Fold each of these.
Amino acid sequence: MSQDPIPKSGIAPFETTLAQQGLTLTRGKTSVLQINVGLKCDLACRHCHLEAGPARSEAMTRATMAEVIAFASRGSFQVADITGGAPELVPDLPFLLAGLAPAVPTVMLRTNLTALSTAERLPLLELCRRLRIVIVASFPALTPAQIEAQRGSGVWDTSVAMLQKLNAMGFGRPGSGLELHLVANPGGAFLPQNQAAAEREYHRTLARKLDIEFNRLFVFANMPLGRFKRWLATSGNLDSYMDNLLRAFNPCTIESLMCRSLVSVAWDGTLYDCDFNQAANLPLGGRRIHVSDPAAQPAAESPIATGEHCYACSAGSGFT
Ligand code: SF4
């Protein structure tokens, strides 16, 4: 995509802040395989760190998916987490799901709900039910106005109808063994509310007003990357947002940052320490490695590539 470069903030480098606290960030045991299957999306949300949208065409091929499945099979991953863009729009997604399900104990599929809602996705939904795929759905707020300000007109109704349909299939219903988790993020240049309090409010509001049930809510900070960073810069909020993240830096979060236990594969097979580093073009530990490389499994204590966006993971009680 040819867009104007986004200006840098004036914040201290993340490694400098770690060093001032006597901290280093290296890998523990890698147990989560995150797979970004492509950047095409039916929406173009304001907070998207990958600038995914309808005009993007990058998509993982079946050949790369086969290499990802082989990597998953020879690793000791506990979780495979499939994301995008909208993964549902990648034609060979069913091939990937079917290959990963026997290789990894838990397979998660992220969805924006709207891309899952069309009639042509019914076979995919049935496959997810049969393979007991864990559905992780973006539902960033509890009012139509807040959701549509971030995601576009009409998204509230489609998302609510899709959640109700997932419940009707058993996802998120107690005793079904089919999990449905929700993901929320703030609507602007501020930090998210406490996750436990937000989860209680989501359970209460969605059950009472819309008869929707779900398992867990995950609350994430908006990443100062991609479309959200562009918006921060053009609205004059970039420096104040980064200052807020730095002021909220919490050294206790470093031990449990997701990059310590996760490896992320991009649509073209390149490995990264996390999905955010894909957006920042920072490959795994600073080295460009393909998923088909026999040495691709990162070792404990190996380095993690960082950037100023890492402040969003380490603010407050941590958001990954
Ligand atoms: S953004 Fe930085 S701190 Fe957060 S998971 Fe990625 S590498 Fe780790």
Amino acid sequence: MTNKDELKERILKLIRQYGEEYHGRKPFEPGDRIGCAGRVYGGEELVALADSALEFWLTAGRYTEEFERKFAGYIGAKYCAFVNSGSSANLLAFMALTSPLLGERALRRGDEIITVAAGFPTTVAPIVQFGATPVFVDITIPQYNIDVTQLEAALSPRTKAVMLAHTLGNPFNVKAVREFCRKYKLWLIEDNCDALGSEYGGRRTGIFGDLATSSFYPAHHITTGEGGAVYTSQPLLAQIIRSMRDWGRDCMCAPGQDDLCGHRFERQFGELPQGYDHKYVYSHFGYNLKATDMQAAIGVAQMAKLEGFITARKRNFALLYAALEPLQDKLILPEACPDSEPVWFGFPITCREGVSRKRIVTYLEKHNIQTRMLFAGNLLRQPCMRGVEFRAIGGLPGTEAVMNHLFWLGIYPGLEEKAIAYMAEKLSEALRLA
Ligand SMILES: Cc1ncc(COP(=O)(O)O)c(C=O)c1O
């Protein structure tokens, strides 16, 4: 072993020890903070991060390549592009569909995109930012996903795509949505940010759309700090995604790589001089949405733990469900779509008539139990919708109910059985007082 390797080994050994000693979790005691989500990590993530830091490649490199390959393999998609957030992934997925390389099928300003208003705003943001029109369909309770019986009513000659999230990890009715998209030749973007590992019809979500996205923000099923991914099995879409992620360029060489194809100075592009450097040929007006190799290194370490995380999430969901079952006269508990196996992001609860959400969440928060709304609630009521052109199918009563009566609790893998029991106990107390 060289001095360099030996030194690195010593450094990484110390870092692992530090991670285990100072980043471990202490057992839950009643009264401790119960988060709605959180990072679950250990020495392995710190070692991977330090290894990448010692290499000092910084931008997308070997860890990014490994993460993209492992992630695509896990989902069952052919291509994956690692990006700097789930919101960037949504932006990139949507903008990919505006590429001139798609010819007649490319999205244009004024096209209509079917989506829902009960969810996270950046599922809808790219539609509005591009100048397409969102068409909002209601959701059903207690699945909190699109009411597929409204799809036909949402259709118009301008409809070009459907862009939907699997709400809080619960797969939407993939069969109905895909049939609708196939029938009318619409694109489908699957926002899989909250649903990593969830299954529909025995297959992982994220492979049903033309494109799908993930988020690796700390609250998610795995984390890279900031981070996200776009994936697809269609080579042309993968090529467009790469181009738009990496400044819009035409060349597919990785950062730091030159002339992979061997024809760098030999081709004719647009009206550029013959042989103009392919590295500086732009087939799109793109972005730079790449993440760093340090983030990817953490992602690789997290991927190795994903199955364990999924088991823990499922266990926590089942424990909380069982503990809250006796309270169903006051609370509506969540329900999975038929033929699906969710890996829930959180545990959504809708208060029945006469039960005050405000009193419950105030009581829980007072007892150090974090609560969350379903993100934007009803996006149509948010200040950002001012002046935005849209269509909505009916009055969206389900979405309104979510905005007014829903909250969700954490079930992330860092929560132990005792914490789940404590949460249920406090919720039960809150109901007695509410
Ligand atoms: C459904 C959904 N889509 C997109 C995002 C955005 O991800 P990010 O926070 O990584 O930008 C989130 C964030 O939690 C989300 O819940």
